[in-house]
Design brief:
There is one protein chain. The chain has one helix at about 155-165; strands spanning about 10, 15-20, 30-35, 35-45, 50-60, 65-70, 80, 85-95, 100-110, 120-130, 135-140, 145-150. The chain is mostly beta strands.
């Protein structure tokens, strides 16, 4: 265990049913490059009808310091008259302009711009993800460039294969 404890509190009138970070293809991911297009997708279940729902989120670094945060009240996008049993899916698209490292997302489901009134759910560590700086590299072999998009964690075998290809040899076990 990494020693992190998820805090979950609130009345439960609305809860986060699913949360994901999506890449530019709309696929779930846990690792993205610095500056990559990303979408935070949050699916909320309404457990009891509520007159007004605001979703807030914060992105925190590995030390728990808030790097960014916003909510649908600030964006003038609250949901009115949410009915019991309804699912509401939010999508927030942004470039992942964070430095390399580990991050978490905290969510808040409330009725206003603060969690001090009608706190339906507060969830720390709702999502964990990693930002890398692998980026794109260009290999030149025999005068013809090859572009390789690197993303996520790379195995030593993959790195060795790139090194072998860059040196002009053909890998035999990749």
């Amino acid at each position: 265990a990494d020693g992190k404890v998820q805090t979950l509190s609130g009345t439960g009138e609305a809860t986060v049913a699913d949360i994901a970070l999506l890449d530019e293809r709309g696929e779930r991911c846990e690792v993205l490059d610095v500056g990559s297009p990303a979408t935070l997708q949050v699916k909320v279940l309404i457990n009891h009808s509520i007159p007004r729902l605001v979703l807030g989120y914060m992105i925190k670094d590995r030390l728990g310091q808030v790097m960014y945060g916003t909510n649908t009240h600030i964006k003038s996008l609250p949901i009115g008259d949410a009915k019991s049993g309804e699912f509401i899916t939010y999508k927030f698209a942004f470039p992942l302009n964070l430095g390399p490292g580990s991050y978490s997302v905290a969510t808040a489901l409330v009725s206003t711009d603060t969690h001090l009134t009608n706190n339906y759910e507060w969830r720390d560590l709702a999502l964990l993800f990693t930002v890398t700086s692998y980026g794109t590299i260009v290999l030149v072999h025999d005068g013809s460039p090859s572009t390789i998009r690197l993303g996520g964690e790379m195995s030593n075998a993959a790195i060795d294969a790139i090194n072998v290809r860059a040196a002009g040899a053909v890998p035999t076990n990749v």
